[in-house]
Amino acid sequence: MDASPTCCPVERRVIAMGVDFTFSDTIAGYVTDYDRAQRRFGLRTSDGRTFSVHLTPTTFARFTFNLEEDYRDATGALDRLLALHRQMLYVYGTFYPDPAGVLLFEAQWIVFPGDGPGRFRHEEPNWWLRQIESIAHSYLKWQFDWPRQPIDYKNYRTILHLAGTKKGDFLQETDTISRLVYGFASAYMLTGREEFLEGAEKGTEYLREHMRFFDQDEDLIYWYHGIKVEGERETKLLSSEFGDDYDAIPMYEQIYALAGPTQTYRLTGDPRIRFDIDHTMELFEKYYKDSSERGGYFSHIDPVTLDPRAPSLQHNQGRKNWNSVGDHAPAYLINLWLATGEKAHADFLEYTFDTITRYFPDYDNSPFVQERFFEDWSHDQGWGWQQNRAVVGHNLKIAWNLMRMHSLKPKPEYVEFARKIAEVMPNAGSDQQRGGWYDVVERVAKPAGRHHRFVWHDRKAWWQQEQAILCYLIMHGVLRDDEYLRHAREAAAYYNAFFLDHDDGAVYFNTLANGLPYLLGNERFKGSHSMSGYHSTELCLLSATYINLLIAREPLWLHFKPQPGAFGGVLRVAPDILPPGSIVISACLIDDQPYDAYDAQALTVTLPQTDRPVRVKVKVSPVNWLD
Fold first, then answer.
1. pLDDT, tens digit, for every residue of 354-379?
2. Domain 126-551 maps to which CATH number in 1.50.10.10, 1.20.140.10, 1.10.287.110, 2.40.10.10?
């Protein structure tokens, strides 16, 4: 399906507006025409602006290529590729001003996301499977020196340099371990490789033994911020060590402590994990929830009194935010519902999305949602670094998860809100010149200003690209709007063209606006407080799900390894919340042998009674694929 913009004549001249120097930049767009004799082609950007691009004798080109693939040259195919109108590409080149004030743009190199209009390598059936396998293997090697050494989380370190080497720190953060565990569990779900399940199970066990506190008097669980390891000595850190959350227990840390174990629970059904999840949720309900008519969840509690209104919390006293309200769903709650199908979990999800839909829109004042609130839901526009600023990815994350929830409990307000976000965000938060999505911008544009000002920089973070890709993939998959498909393809094409680290493995943290990797400070790391193999693997799992099952209409194999007696004997295998009736189980294997005790429409497998774990492999297919 071709969802590219309609062609129109190309503007041959770009007026320099006083620019009297050369500069280099990237242009992303679609080919409109090609003059082979003049070695020039026309290029139309996503928002309809046109450029004339000149080739030089040294212009070279490549196709997008996946992790652990060989470089794929396209220089020899330039004439053929540029002759294909509506072919998408990225071109990096130099603007040269002439005495008449005209900028001539000459191409240095070109990246083709696919071999023809409407064709994208990231839509190949196994693209994301191969990518998640490579990323997971990189983290096994970096953290544990696997396969030369066994997987041992005593050796885990939060900080990893660009090539995966460890910094001399001994801090083990709970959330970063949990996020890595999520990555290993997701990699197992797509590949069935035992080393990934081992990484997930050992990481979950390490979290339980070292980072978990079970308060038997209160019958609830909370999780330490992390531990400092010095030889055989462990120092547990209950409250956060970070400036914005210092000396408090932020809810997002408790939420993300569940991300990895919950994804592992989907695979194994380990009742000890379920115990931890249930008792952590008790903490949420007892101490973080605003049980008054105002509703929602507070962002922080005092580490001694567990009071969200304690004066000691200072700027976090009585506050609510996106993380405390919305992050339940993508971090663990949707995955928990997928594993259990329990009404209580569906009700919690509905409460979460109803709260977001009621309080987060602020379209009379900004194209971005409001993210921070006081206790009464009045807007907090003076908090810390955020002030009255927008995190672009949070807006996209809301739309993505609203559409997931809509398939569980359809509500017109969910679709209306998701559509609003999806339709206003490209102009407000994306780079329609170069491709990709920005980080943090001012929520309100300056008077007479066309663009929302960047807060710190115009760089693009890997996780914000993920939110854009998943947002527009599921929007198109559910609503069948080709404009959403175009945005999904452009976002995924940018990510796969520029974020994959073909030299050292996994993905870069940030790129510059022009797509080149930004490799300074904390942003050069492969492991940090922010990055630990979570968003990159989540993107692989769910892109494979949405592209294969909703868009390309290809089957997807999934892997599980339930313990004896897990899930009451019934394994739920849906990869995500998708429209009812859109997918079915078309085949099942247990320990590599055909098995037919499954309900194709309900997406459940009746497990055999055994005294050991069994390997369950299911083929999930789109209904139209079977027709």
1. 999 999 999 999 999 999 999 999 99
2. 1.50.10.10
